[in-house]
Structure formats: C-alpha cells, structure tokens
C-alpha cells in the first residue's frame, strides 16, 4: 500500500508541488484582499500567480521556476509592493535547486537569494528597526534552506549508490548461480555416466557368460539373461536421467561438499550406501561426533540412487561441520520402507543462529539430486535448536512423486 502511494506521488509531481505551495496561498489571500499589505486586487492576483504559479513545475523545471520567481520578486521590489507570504516561493525554489544534481547552480541560487535579501533590507526596513539584524536574519534563512537542500542531495546520492550497488551484487550473484548450475549439471552427468558405463560393462560380461553357458548349462545362461534384462532396464533408466540433467536448463546448483571422499583415485567407483560408514568415520576424524543407524531392510537400489543417498548425507554433514559450531553433534538415520527411503540428518548446533555468507548452494544441490528420482527434501533449523535435513527418495519408478 505504501509503495503504491509513493509511486503515485512520484508520477503526480505537479499536483504534489501545488499541494506544498497551497499553505502560502492560503496565508497570502486574506492579507491581499483584506487590505493588510496595501496591494490592489488585480496586483494581488498577478503577484500570487507570478510567485506561486511556477511552483507547480518546481521539480520538473527547477532552474526556470527559480528564475521566474526571482524575476517576479524583483518586479515587486521595483514597484515598491510589500512583501507577502507568497515570497517564500524564493526559498522553495532555492531548496529545489540546492537539492538537485548541480552544486554550482545551487550556489548561484544562494547568491541570488542573498542579493534579494540585501535589496529587501534596503527597501523595506524602517528606521526604527536594525537593518543589519534584518539582513542577517534573511541571510540565515536562505543559508539554512540551502544547507537543507545540500543535505537532501547528498542523501539521495547515497541512496542511489546503495541501490546501484545492490543491483550490481544481484547481477553478480545471478551470474555465479548460473555458473554453479552448469558446474553441478556437469558433475551429476559425469557421475551418472560412470554408473551407466558400469551397468553396460556388467551387461557385456553377463552376455559373454550366457554365450558360453548356453549349451552346457541352460539354467546358468537363463540367470545371466535375467541379469542382463534387469541391468539393461536399470541402465536405460539412468541414461534417461542423464539426458534429463543435460537438457535441464534451470535449477541445478552445486553441492559445496568439503567432506573427503571415502574412495580415492580418479578411476574409483562412485560411492554408495556401503561407503556411508567410511564417510561417517572420516567426519568423526574431522572432529564431529556422529551417530549412524538404519531402520528396516536395505533393498536393492540402482547405483544412481545410492550415489544420491551418499551425496545427501555428505552435504548435510559438511554443513554441520561448517556451521554447527565447535560442540555440535550429528545423527544420521536411514529408514528403509517398502516404497521409499527416508534420510534424516540432524544436529544440535547453532541452527538458525548460524552465519550464512549467501554463497552456499548445497541445500539446493540436494533438491536437484533428489528431484532426478522424483523425491523431495526438507531442510531448515529445528524448533529446539540445531538443523535438520530430511529427504525422501522413491525406490521404485511407479511410486515417483
């Protein structure tokens, strides 16, 4: 509501400027038409129109407005017409120029205003009053208005610089995210490629075994063909996911995992559920006490699913190491169900109080990996303190969410 009102005010500048000039109009009319200032009705109309009329364009044409008001005031001085409240338009014009982008024009407007103060002092000061006091008072008013305009100009420039900096940082962050997305897609593609390559290798080995056992041991050949069929379907599903990752254009972000891999070497197989114990042990060696347990009977899973489970636990423990604090402890629990596997990683660290530099994309990386298999991830601070990551991964294609 406030934002829309402010936008409306910005679009209706002349109307708003007239509103701010209206108090001077209300104070001037009674004096002019009541005979207080000794100005005739038509002279009063011309004077009010010349002083307050240009105020409608005060912010649209600030220098022109100030020049017109100053010229009307000079004509008023020449015609020996008394000063009226509407003459405050000179100070309004001075403020507008001082608050503008040009310091030199603001200084020139101040000089014109001080000159007008000297002229008004010489013309309108009586012998009973002190001319020096009147001149100093008018000059102090002009100087105060000018300084207020300079302050507003500095403040606007500062706010503008903050907005530009925020926009620049936002653009840089979007660029970093795009680069990170591409890197994570490439990483997932490499890992799935290794899984598919392994499955194809198994198919070749089983096919060779079936060929040699076809005549002498038909039962063994039949088992080999069944293995080929199951492995082929698995490889085909992983290949589809691999192509989906390569074609996907928008949500992948990198996992910032820093926990070391339990397997070393460029040609080591991709880690899976069996390597979680080694991962937990390495985390303990890094200084984080971890409990690890499972519920249910572990079913047969594709290597891609096992790799996803491993990466989620790895990323969650890495976050605890980085943000949990020096005395945090963690717990990893795997719940095997008939249709899905639930991964729960909790800690008792800082939780919501942990510092965030805004550059981590690990949680989004988890969601990207789980989404490949139709699952979902919930991550956030725990109500009693600490942090939790809960992921659900379907174990069969037909139960994908």
TrEMBL record:
Catalysed conversion reaction: ATP + protein L-histidine = ADP + protein N-phospho-L-histidine
Entry-linked Gene3D superfamilies: 1.20.5.1930, Histidine kinase-like ATPase, C-terminal domain
Residue ranges annotated for the Histidine kinase domain, each copy included: 304-397
Top enzyme category: transferase
Keyword Phosphoprotein: yes
Transmembrane domains' residue ranges: 14-33, 103-121, 133-152
Coiled coil: 152-186
EC annotation from Swiss-Prot or TrEMBL: 2.7.13.3
Entries under CDD domains matching the protein: HATPase_UhpB-NarQ-NarX-like
Keywords recorded for this protein, A-Z: ATP-binding, Coiled coil, Kinase, Membrane, Nucleotide-binding, Phosphoprotein, Transferase, Transmembrane, Transmembrane helix, Two-component regulatory system
Lineage top rank: taxon: Bacteria
GO molecular function: kinase activity
Keyword Transcription regulation belongs to the record: no
Name of the molecule in the record: histidine kinase
């Amino acid at each position: 509501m406030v934002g829309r009102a402010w936008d409306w005010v910005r679009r209706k500048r002349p109307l708003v400027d007239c509103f701010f000039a209206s108090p001077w109009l209300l104070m001037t009319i009674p004096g002019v038409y009541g005979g207080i200032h000794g100005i005739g009705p038509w002279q009063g109309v011309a004077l009010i129109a010349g002083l307050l009329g240009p105020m409608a364009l005060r912010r649209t044409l600030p220098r022109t407005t100030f020049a017109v008001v100053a010229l009307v005031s000079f004509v008023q001085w020449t015609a020996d017409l008394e000063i009226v409240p509407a003459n405050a338009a000179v100070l309004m014009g001075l403020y507008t120029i001082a608050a503008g982008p040009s310091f030199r024009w603001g200084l020139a407007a101040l000089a014109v205003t001080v000159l007008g103060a000297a002229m008004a002092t010489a013309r309108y000061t009586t012998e009973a009053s002190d001319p020096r006091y009147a001149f100093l008072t008018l000059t102090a008013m002009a100087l105060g208005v000018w300084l207020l305009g300079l302050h507003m100009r500095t403040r606007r420039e500062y706010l503008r610089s903050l907005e530009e900096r925020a926009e620049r940082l936002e653009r840089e962050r979007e660029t970093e995210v795009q680069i990170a997305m591409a890197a994570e897609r490439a990483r997932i593609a490499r890992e799935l490629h290794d899984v598919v390559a392994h499955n194809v290798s198994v198919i070749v080995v089983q096919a060779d075994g079936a060929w040699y056992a076809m005549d002498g041991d038909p039962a063994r050949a039949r088992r080999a063909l069944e293995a080929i069929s199951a492995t082929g379907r698995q490889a085909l599903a992983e290949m589809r996911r691999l192509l989906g990752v390569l074609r996907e254009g928008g949500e992948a972000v990198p996992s910032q995992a820093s926990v070391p891999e339990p397997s070393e070497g460029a040609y080591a197989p991709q880690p899976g559920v069996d390597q979680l114990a080694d991962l937990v042990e390495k985390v303990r060696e890094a200084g984080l006490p971890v409990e690890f347990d499972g519920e249910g009977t572990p079913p047969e899973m594709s290597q891609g699913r096992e790799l996803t489970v491993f990466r989620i636990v790895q990323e969650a423990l890495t976050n605890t190491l980085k943000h949990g604090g020096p005395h945090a402890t963690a717990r990893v629990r795997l719940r095997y169900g008939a249709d899905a596997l639930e991964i729960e990683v909790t800690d008792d660290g800082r939780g919501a109080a942990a510092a965030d530099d805004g550059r981590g994309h690990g949680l989004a990386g988890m969601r990207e990996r789980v989404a490949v298999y139709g699952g979902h991830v919930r991550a956030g601070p725990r109500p009693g303190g600490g942090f939790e990551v809960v992921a659900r991964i379907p174990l069969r294609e037909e139960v994908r969410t």
